[in-house]
Design brief:
The complex is a heterodimer of chains A (351) and B (251). With 351 residues, chain A is an alpha/beta fold. Chain A has helices at residues 3-13, 29-38, 52-64, 75-91, 117-121, 139-156, 166-170, 211-231, 251-266, 284-290, 307-315, 334-347, and strands at residues 18-21, 45-48, 69-73, 95-101, 132-134, 159-165, 203-204, 235-238, 245-248, 271-276, 278-280, 296-301, 320-325. Helix content of chain A is 42%, strand content 17%. In chain A, the strands form two sheets. Chain A has a seven-stranded mixed sheet with strand order 2-1-3-4-6-5-11, sandwiched between helices. The model of chain A has no long low-confidence stretch (mean pLDDT 97). In chain B, helix 3 (94-100) packs across helix 4 (102-110). Chain B is globular and about 50 Å long. Chain B has one domain (23-243): Thiamin diphosphate (ThDP)-binding fold, Pyr/PP domains (Rossmann fold), CATH 3.40.50.970. Chain B has helices spanning 23-37, 72-82, 94-100, 102-110, 151-154, 160-166, 181-199, 214-217, 221-235; strands at 44-47, 63-65, 87-93, 116-121, 124-125, 131-132, 170-177, 204-210, 239-243. The chains are: A alpha/beta (351), B alpha/beta (251). The A-B interface holds A 18, 20, 45, 47, 49-51, 53-55, 57-67, 69, 83-84, 87, 91, 193-198, 201-207 and B 41-45, 47, 54-55, 57, 60-68, 71, 74-83, 86, 103-104, 107, 111.
């Protein structure tokens, strides 16, 4: 199944009946699939909005009404959604947002890239907030994290972003979906707007004119983010036990890195991989922990160096960090990355 | 003794913060009365905008969800699609609906979304201090159209309601004014009709209300009513701009 179809099918099986989007390559297969599938599911609603801005605001409305709701886009479209994402965060509304990112800035191109890491993990819009951000690296993981994304969004009342790229969206892989979630089993929400019937009227707002109230709201959000950081950090470690050098990479970049590591391992180089699955919260603790044994980290990204900042922050100077990146939509074959890794390995006299 | 005048159930016991002579408090009350009379309080959801009326949720005793500047029609679309049997209305100023939110509004109307919009046109940006609005009339002095709005410098005011009447999905569009007791009653009637159109599932309904802003117009409340009748209505003529009756998409 194609990644862009996988995320759509997984969303529906996770109880999502509302999708609002706007066409942009390389993720058009998601709205197309949603249009077709939701028209055949009871209660399914698909709207092709007039813009990404309208789409994200429809998401806000549907979320206020208590529904599981999703939108998807790619880099320039995600920029347009940022106003709405800031509001989702302030209003504490659950939603799942997919970014199949592409070469940027500006229109860039439609080739796969990871240059939206900063935007995704730093909030992205105005204000002091974070979203849960997952960086899936395969079709199967995309399906699993879509399910998990909806659950966490509801649990914490927070937007969850799936940060993929054009390659993940276009690539076809076999996928096994988790069991379908019956709508009756979806979590009860006691804060939704539904009409003030038999209860006091409710307000969902992000305006706090009194600075002490706004400060308290920010503290409340911060406490939530701290809880999430404590409980929802996810990463994969691959052949780290005997490693003298650790590669850190995410998403499709990690997939390429894994291929490269297998090659250099064949040549006897002791290289491992840490793959952050949650990009926010970032697995800082586990990376810091590794630096007790390993003093050389190699960060690989399909951009000019964004996640490398989080790696350096995590290490706090306790190990050497080397960065290698390829921006603009270039997909590096594992063999080429293997050459760069071994060159670094030898330069550092690890053998 | 018979009680002849009381606060609508749909309004909270909170004093309005609006300036003396402002149309918002009057309009809030009218909407509150209509909600009560149509027995909608338990099934209605309001969407207030950015601007002076953002605090509407402090006054209405109904469910309300705040929208970003200009995005109310899109947000209301999301609400209505999830809750098709509820009544959803947006409450938007002229800058909100006819400048930053033009696209959202026109497309909601074109889709025939079964929502109701109360469009408060006071020809200025009120909360930010009286800047030129998309509906500022030619010659009108604002803080960003010094010497009066000039077409060659500032362009012309937008008649958004007329544009919305052209949309195939709109069902009922009327422009009224809060400039006299009879016009106030007409406004209330128009709001009732707009909600009824939504209840009947006919299509998009909107009431544009020409509303006084004495503070930013630098007039007394009485002068501001007169200004609506003598100046504003020349650019924004009152009346029903579209009414398809009970036929959907009649053109």
């Amino acid at each position: 199944m194609r990644g862009n179809h996988t995320v759509a099918e997984a969303a529906i099986r996770a109880g999502c009946r509302y999708y609002f989007g706007y066409p942009i390559t390389p993720q058009n297969e998601t709205p197309e699939y949603m249009a077709e599938r939701l028209s055949k599911v009871e209660g399914g609603v698909f709207i092709q909005a007039e813009s990404e801005i309208a789409a994200i605001n429809m998401v806000i409305g549907a979320s206020m009404a208590g529904a599981r709701v999703m939108t998807s886009s790619s880099s320039p479209g995600i920029s347009l959604k940022q106003e709405g994402i800031s509001f989702l965060s302030a209003l504490e509304l659950p939603a799942v947002i997919v970014n199949m990112s592409r070469g940027s800035p500006g229109l860039g191109n439609i080739a796969p890239a990871q240059s939206d890491y900063f935007q995704a993990t730093r909030g992205g819009g105005h204000g002091d907030y974070r979203n849960i951000v997952f960086g899936p690296s395969s079709g199967q993981e995309l399906a699993n994290l879509t399910f998990e994304g909806f659950d966490l969004a509801d649990k914490y009342r927070i937007p969850v972003m799936l940060l993929g790229d054009g390659m993940l969206g276009q690539m076809m892989e076999p996928v096994e979906f988790p069991p379908e979630v019956p709508l009756k089993k979806l979590p009860h929400k006691d804060w939704v707007l539904s009409g003030a019937k038999g209860r006091p009227s409710r307000i969902l707002r992000s305006l706090f004119l009194d600075p002490t109230e706004e400060e308290e709201h920010n503290w409340k959000l911060m406490r939530k983010y701290e809880k999430i950081a404590g409980e929802e950090t996810r990463w994969e470690s691959f052949q780290c036990d005997d490693a003298k050098m650790i590669v850190v990479a995410f998403g499709i970049g990690a997939r390429i890195a894994k291929g490269a590591i297998k090659r250099v391992r064949e040549e006897g180089l002791r290289v491992g991989l840490i793959r952050p699955i949650s990009l926010w919260p970032f697995p800082s603790k586990s990376i810091k922990e590794l630096s007790k044994k390993v003093k050389h980290f190699f960060v690989f990204e399909l951009n000019m160096g964004q996640m490398v900042e989080d790696v350096k922050l995590a290490l706090e100077g306790s190990a050497e960090v080397h960065f290698y990146g390829r921006p603009g939509g270039i997909i590096l074959p594992p063999m080429e990355l293997a050459r760069v890794i071994s060159s670094q390995y030898f330069q550092r006299k690890l053998r | 003794m018979k009680k002849v005048f009381t606060r609508p159930r749909s309004l909270k016991q909170t004093p309005f913060h609006y300036c003396p002579g402002c149309g918002h408090s009057l309009l809030h009350r009218l909407i509150g009365e209509v909600i009560d009379e149509m027995d909608l309080r338990e099934k209605i959801i309001g969407v207030p905008p950015a601007g002076c009326a953002v605090l509407a949720y402090n006054y209405f005793d109904i469910d309300m969800g705040e929208a970003a500047h200009g995005r109310a029609a899109a947000l209301a679309t999301g609400l209505k699609r999830v809750l098709p049997d509820r009544v959803i209305f947006t409450y938007q100023g002229d800058g909100d609906i006819a400048a930053i939110g033009t696209a959202e509004t026109i497309h909601a109307a074109a889709r025939g979304e079964k929502i109701t919009t109360i469009f408060v046109n006071n020809a200025v940006y009120g909360m930010t201090g009286g800047q030129m609005a998309p509906t500022t009339v030619l010659g009108q002095n604002t803080t960003t159209s010094p010497g009066g709005r000039r077409e060659e410098r500032d362009g012309y005011p937008i008649r958004l309601s007329e544009m919305l009447a052209l949309a195939q999905g709109s069902a009922y569009i009327e422009r009224t004014a809060l400039s006299s007791p009879s016009n106030v009653l007409k406004t209330k009637k128009a709001i009732t009709k707009a909600f009824q159109i939504q209840l009947d599932g006919v299509g998009f309904s909107l009431v544009e209300v020409l509303s006084p802003c004495p503070t930013n117009w630098r007039m007394s409340p009485v002068e501001s009513w007169k200004w609506i009748d003598e100046v504003m209505t020349a650019s924004f003529p009152l009346g029903v701009l579209k009414d398809v009756g009970d036929k959907r998409n009649a053109d």
